[in-house]
Amino acid sequence: MHAYLDSGRLNRLRTARATTQSDLAAQLNTSVSLLNRIESGHQQVDDETAVRLAHALDCSTDVLGRPLPDQLYTRPWLRAYADAPKKTVDEYVADTLLAMEFIGQLHLRRIPERLPLFDGDPNNDDDIEEFALEVREEAGVDPVKWVPNVTRAAERLGCVVLPLDSELGKHLGMSMHVDGVSVLRASRPAPGGGVPGDRQRFTLAHELGHVTMHATWPPPGTAEQAKAIEKQAHRFAGAFLLPGDAFLSDLEALGGRVTLTTLANLKGRWGVAIKAMVVRLQNLGRIDADQARSLYKQISARGWNKNEPVTVGNERAVWMKQALERRFLGDADALSAAVQQCGLGRSYFESWVSWEPLSSLDADVLDLSARRRSGALPKGSRDRR
């Protein structure tokens, strides 16, 4: 008997798992040309092959036959993939679309979106500064203090925050809109520390700048456009994390001298990298270009470019895990209950809710290079015999 497979679904699952047609063909012990015909919809498959495909892609055969939903989404604001491999970007776009599809299918209760609309001039720094204060207020952040948790602030604004398994080329994060929902992704820590908390926090604030200021913009098509929107998102992130009046007031309370010792003390309070504070102080006119260069040289001389003093803890999103637990209240394992209901494998859900370093995760659950190998057929999977 022949099993029905949706070619678009097959492509999306394979792309989300960062598996090439060659890799998948090898797992199935078949030819690339045959797999290509299957994926293009020009070759039917029997039940046995459908089960093997489902096993390799960690889903049920029902999922493989389910047509893709009609999702309206933006591409990440990355310039023609110059700073990130296209294959990796495509992987995370596909994975994000899957996450949002199954969030909807499981009827997870989202936090209503409260992101203010930016109606200023994105090339006007004052407009960006004022807007960042407006976003802070909407997120419930004290106007004169540091942001306790950038991830929670984004979630309170109605954003869905998901982890990245690794850096995305030169980027630590990406963002996009899916059916009107703002989705932010940021790198989880790597083995041995990896992405420090201050960089993770700045990345999330930067991506928040993109989804608020560039919501209707396409990805930049030129290097100049890319530079401009990155500068705007950086300015937003600086203003969101270090509101000018409050930050400068704190500096004055510590004596007013801009030294590395003072900045290290401020880092412990504000959770922002010392180099980022130098940029912010220059933006605010508190130091000039010569003083900024001097501070950068001192930072380099002390070996702080890669390893700054003062550890800022990493953050983690909580909404999706809590939403699953509420949805399957009474089940001992909400992830297993989600798998049972929707037919998508556990490895996907683990990759969306876990913020632990990859090396510390159970290899049977998330060995992601685990996206790059086959998973187990989820509990409750069934073929179409």
From TrEMBL:
It holds the Pfam family Peptidase_M78. Residues 10-64 form the HTH cro/C1-type domain. Coiled coil: none annotated. GO terms for molecular function: DNA binding. Belongs to the short-chain fatty acyl-CoA assimilation regulator (ScfR) family. This is Zn-dependent peptidase ImmA (M78 family). The lineage of its organism: Bacteria, Bacillati, Actinomycetota, Actinomycetes, Micrococcales.
